[in-house]
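Lecture notes, continued. The same structure-token format from the folding unit now serves as the input rather than the output. Read the line below as a description of shape only.
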């Protein structure tokens, strides 16, 4: 709970006070390594590129003090670090939680900000560069001007691994252009309850499809550049079983299903939930994020059998495990015990994300008292360094503002993705595609002229922003307008109120959900808004036929309404390339998408099973992989 209330950019005072009382004064300094003897750097060899990576890592670790090692295990939110502390603590990673932007939110602003942190890291005794992470989960959408691609659920509807790979590569290019070397994507959750506010962040609830698309995303994001270095590091999240969380069991009192209990046993995890991770690891992933769920009666983050056992030992994962936002501490009062349990379970890099000082002291203390072994700390540091070497951070100079390319627009790619992601669920009376015989079109609905709504959350702000506030991007309405033949009369009114009752040939209702992220999107009844239902009715009263386009992060409960609609298209959260919708409506491109998860009729049908069935065994409205064509 605290994580979300504190989010973004505040340092929790209670945590600082606790830290002060737990380890004060000189003992704190001792524990932070101030009195530790410093290995000489005279014979340091880790910059020697003729050595193997593992030899370079061995050498670097041999030259590190305990305090320097523990510093590498800290991942700090960018507004929470005090001046000079990046170098003083030898911090391993920093992040912009969604919405934590530079003062000037442009690619130059990002480069300047991150280059500043990187330069400071270089001034530490060892000069180890930082990992800098961000949630570019549908393109580098935190920066205005970057193309916003469909959220992952839309990519799941395309089923197109080559397309996903291209989108990930485009995202990497823009991350590089801003100095971000680590992306918190892809999401490999398998959502089974459409009431969950994170349904849209996942590709599908079919483990096989998620395996295919997750691995493609990793390949695209990490496609090797010259020098054999990975341009941007992928993160597989969230480990493990988040999609199976049960309604009403959240440990966060604001939520119902986010951060809840995953009631799935080990054989089921092994059979269905871990294979997508295995495939993405095979594709080269070097970072895995542990989720905020509870499993087997305890926070999953403390589960050694799952993190150290299944992931590192059985799947042979050689990269590092990172905790989620405040994830080690969430729901815990004893921060020392929470830290010890998570590190011993196998967490290597801790997304604190605020109070690194307490963390450093706690791990030092735990090591001194024998709760956390030096071997475990060395293993964590080795894994973090392995990723840093793979990124070439030791060998490539830090990007400076002058040397860095600007963001690239990828609207054509995004437009293709949008068109491929649309799923035609109903098409009666030859409503679609729109033919030249259609001479009068009326458009209505909250999502028709709303790039913010069609982009969804994780767009500049964590929760997204409703409305047309982005300087770029094409609304679905603008795409339709641009494609409508000159001799066809097109009218738009959000509520569907038109001055004349004369019947138009076609009504297009673009309706859906306002943006939400994480538990704030948990909803007992994911249904259409009243104003959108009114807009549809108004169109039905004044148009011969009506097609409804749903812009949403999940299937909505529409069983009571769909019968009266002539056609229905699921558009998911398409992003900035709204033209892609018109491409399909007018038949310029084939309609190809299929449902990446079943579309239930009622909330009694959830949770859906991984094989596409319902909880109560009844028929869904539209089954998984359903999609009409024309
Ligand atoms: C989310 C992660 C995200 C992280 C960093 C958390 O709240 O659960 O998916 O990567 O924040 O912003």
């Amino acid at each position: 709970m605290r994580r979300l209330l504190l989010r973004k950019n505040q340092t929790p005072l209670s945590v600082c006070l606790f830290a002060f009382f737990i380890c004060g004064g000189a003992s704190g300094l001792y524990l932070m390594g101030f009195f530790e003897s410093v290995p000489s750097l005279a014979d340091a060899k880790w910059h020697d590129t003729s050595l193997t990576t593992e030899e370079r890592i061995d050498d670097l670790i041999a030259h590190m003090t305990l305090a320097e090692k523990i510093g590498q295990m800290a991942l700090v939110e960018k507004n929470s670090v005090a001046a000079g502390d990046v170098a003083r603590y030898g911090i391993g990673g920093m992040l912009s939680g969604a919405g934590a932007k530079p003062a000037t939110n442009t690619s130059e602003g990002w480069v300047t900000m991150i280059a500043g942190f990187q330069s400071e890291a270089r001034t530490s005794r060892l000069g180890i560069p930082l990992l800098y992470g961000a949630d570019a989960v549908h393109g580098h959408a935190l920066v205005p001007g970057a193309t916003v691609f469909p959220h992952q659920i839309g990519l799941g509807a395309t089923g197109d691994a080559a397309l996903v790979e291209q989108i990930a590569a485009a995202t990497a290019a823009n991350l590089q252009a801003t100095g971000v070397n680590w992306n918190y994507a892809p999401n490999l959750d398998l959502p089974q309850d459409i009431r969950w506010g994170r349904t849209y962040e996942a590709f599908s609830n079919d483990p096989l499809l998620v395996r295919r698309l997750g691995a493609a995303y990793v390949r695209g994001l990490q496609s090797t550049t010259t020098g054999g270095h990975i341009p941007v590091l992928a993160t597989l999240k969230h480990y493990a079983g988040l999609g199976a969380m049960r309604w009403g069991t959240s440990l966060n009192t604001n939520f119902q299903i986010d951060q809840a209990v995953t009631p799935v046993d080990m054989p089921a995890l092994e059979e269905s939930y871990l294979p997508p991770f295995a495939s993405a690891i095979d594709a080269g992933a070097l970072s895995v994020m542990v989720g905020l769920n509870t499993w087997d009666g305890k926070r999953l983050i403390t589960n050694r059998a799952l993190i150290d056992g299944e992931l590192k030992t059985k799947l042979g994962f050689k990269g590092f495990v990172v905790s989620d936002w405040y994830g080690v501490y969430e729901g815990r009062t004893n921060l020392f015990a929470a830290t010890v349990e998570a590190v011993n379970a196998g967490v290597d890099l801790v997304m604190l994300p605020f109070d690194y000082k307490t963390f450093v002291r706690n791990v030092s203390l735990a090591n001194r008292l024998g709760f956390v072994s030096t071997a475990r700390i060395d293993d964590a540091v080795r894994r973090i360094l392995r990723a840093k070497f793979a990124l070439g951070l030791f060998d490539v100079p830090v990007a400076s503002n002058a040397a860095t390319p600007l963001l690239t627009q990828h609207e054509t790619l995004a437009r293709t993705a949008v068109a491929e992601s649309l799923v035609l669920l109903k098409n009666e009376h030859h409503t679609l595609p729109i033919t030249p015989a259609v001479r009068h079109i009326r458009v209505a609905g909250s999502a028709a002229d709303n790039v913010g709504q069609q982009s969804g959350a994780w767009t500049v702000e964590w929760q997204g922003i409703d409305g047309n506030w982005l300087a770029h991007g094409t609304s679905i309405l603008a795409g339709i307008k641009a494609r409508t033949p000159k001799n066809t009369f097109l009218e738009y009114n959000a509520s569907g109120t038109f001055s004349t009752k004369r019947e138009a040939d076609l009504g297009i209702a673009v309706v859906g959900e306002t943006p939400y992220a994480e538990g704030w999107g948990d909803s007992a009844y994911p249904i259409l808004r009243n104003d959108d239902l009114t807009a549809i009715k108004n169109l039905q009263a004044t148009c011969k036929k009506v097609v409804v386009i749903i812009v949403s992060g999940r299937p909505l409960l529409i069983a009571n309404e769909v019968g009266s609609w002539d056609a229905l298209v699921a558009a998911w959260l398409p992003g900035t390339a709204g033209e892609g919708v018109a491409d399909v409506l007018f038949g310029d491109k084939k309609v190809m998408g299929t449902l990446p998860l079943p579309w239930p009729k009622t909330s009694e049908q959830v949770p859906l099973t991984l094989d596409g069935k319902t909880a109560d065994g009844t028929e869904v409205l539209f089954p998984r992989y359903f999609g009409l064509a024309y």
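Point for the exam: Confidence is low (pLDDT under 50) at residues 1-31.
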